[in-house]
Amino acid sequence: KGDLRTCFCVFQSFAMGKGKNGSDADSAGGDAGIFASSLCQRMIVQRKSLESILEESRHDQASEGAKLSLVDLLCIGIGSTIGSGVFVLTGKALPEAGPAAFVAWMVAGLICLLSSMSYMELSSRLPTKGSCYVFSYHGLGELAGVVGAVCLTMEYGISGAGVARNWSAKLSDAIGYHPVLCYNLQPYGQGCDEDNDYYLDPIAAVMTLLCTGIVASGLNMGKIVINAFTFAKIALVAFLIVAGLASWTGNQFDNFAPRGAPGVINATTLLFFGFIGFDEVCCMASKADNPVKTMPRALAGTLIGAALFSGLAQFSLSAMVPYTDGMKSIGFEEAFANKGLFWARWLVAVGELVLLPLVVLLSILPQPEVTAAMAEDGLLPHIFRQKNMKGTYVKGTWLCGSFLTLVAFAVPFAVLWDVITLGVLMSFNLTNAALINMRYGNGGALRKPWVDVLVWLLMITMCIAGFTFNQGILSPLLEEEPVIMLSVVFFGLSSACALAIMGGIRFGFETRCDMDDTSLFKAWGVPFVPGLAIFCNFFLLATLAWMTWAYFSALLIVFFILYAAYIVRPTTPEVVARSVIEVVMDQSSSPDESGGSSATVPA
Fold first, then answer.
1. Proportion of the chain above pLDDT 70, given as a percent
2. Whether residue 219 has pLDDT greater than 60
3. Which one, of 69, 139, 82, lies nearest residue 295 by Cα?
């Protein structure tokens, strides 16, 4: 009854504009207070229900248009993951760890696997578009969902525009002409270059627009292009592996880890970013066949495939280029040239130039799915959720693609690359936290407030532990400098608090979701494994510069202002009444304590 009376008062204040005595002037202050309170409650408390998510999934499964098989999803995942890891990071890791860089790839893959467990379970329980946005909205609240959407936009659309600029620079180097306009109006190389891309880039804009057109043409065309390019990329990586092993020089096992554990740790920190993009398949759940079972398999296959191809490529490069003290970063192109295999060098260069646009296409592909999910929840205009007869978000795709084309044309990525990395790791943390909250009763509604508080405290303590361990303990040890004792104290206290929090959640609260449905994937070791993943992600975040955090914070503030302005936009009393009635029905219906019931989607 109290909830009903509160909602009726909110409705009366907004729809009628009157106070208790019917005076607009006397009620202005009260209305403002109710408005601010209801806005904060919506941002923090409101969650997307399981019923609405499953209804969206049933609707998507029944809609017209092509569907993605497991092979299609693997092509999307592997195609978006292997690339820079093989062509760039292998050469950077070799001077750090020598032949042991292969081990560093496996360790980085295991660290990534910790977060992927949360993605596997949530994509099985919540088989709809939106990935981290929907996971966070369901498990942590609307504001967390919006932050997750910002992170996904950085990981997908914005990074795709950056790859387009990188591809444009490679193409310009190959033809020996740079058709760009530097910001300082000077010739290319005087104030702007490939590393400091402060210029307008029409070629990158054209590439982004072309990829947008392929996505807007529908999934049938997109699947053909993506699968063909992915198999071509796998063939190129296989050639690198075979050609590198055929040029084996010496015995790399004689000096397998020349810099010892510090070198392997440094390489692991670097190579983790070679797995970024594995979660992209989650955004395509609405287009997948039987997503409850297919999505976890696609995620696992993407990680295994990325680790296998990247690790073997690293091993072959180590076999071809023996480690020497003081060596610089070296890629496959230079390694083949040093061996006199100039034909192989040009094959790699041309192959990378031809296949790199696949990453641009795959980065744009999930972006309309994210904006459509937000539009269905009323957080973006309705136009983003409009489909054509083939089930394609044509208008949303062109709106997103036009914005990304502008970004590719005008925005320098000399700074934004680290901001994108920050957004990716933050989305991992939100997903891990959402799984813990969902498992223990807060999926779809805030039923266990103390669990919610403990989950956010876990995020804070793991943040402190990750930063103090990286900056105050491990970094000084690797640089052979004294350890900062204050960091040791803070790391010990925060780690102990984090363990106590996870233990309190695990043994102090009952699991409030369906654990008996055998069709659902279930992550192991909740909340301890997701908690460890959060620590690892914050450890990697500690390697980023403080200015990167400042840029990301400014970006979040801008999006928060736009989000708040949109959800409080003027509306009619009928719309307000409908929203209030939905809240009343949700709060008065005594929701099932299971919170995360079976996500099996009927055919």
1. 88
2. yes
3. 69
Helices (H), 322-481: 332-338, 342-355, 357-364, 367-376, 394-410, 416-437, 449-468, 475-478
Place of tokens 């042991």: 100
Report the DSSP beta bridge partners of residue 199. 182
Q: Is the CA virtual torsion 370, 374, 380, 383 positive or negative?
A: positive
Dig out the tokens for 583 from the structure: 């809240």
Q: Whole-angstrom Cα distance, residue 505 to residue 527?
A: 7
Amino acid identity at 31: D
β-bridge mates for residue 68, sequence order? 288
Widest CA span in the chain: 91
Whether residue 8 has pLDDT greater than 60: no
How much is the CA Rg of the chain, to the nearest whole Å? 25
Q: To the nearest 5 percent, what fractions of the chain are helix, strand and coil?
A: 75, 0, 25
Contact assessment for residue 141 and residue 42, using Cβ atoms and an 8 Å cutoff: no
Region of residue 189 (phi > 0: left; psi between -120 and 50: alpha; otherwise: beta) = left
Question: Side-chain half-sphere of 344: how many Cα atoms within 13 Å?
Answer: 21
**Full-prediction pTM beyond 0.90?**
no
Q: Do 67 and 289 contact (CB within 8 A), yes or no?
A: yes
Instruction: Measure the CA dihedral 87/304/463/133, to 10°.
Output: 100
DSSP secondary-structure letter at 286? Answer: G
Closest to 241 measured CA to CA, from 303, 320, 346, 341: 320
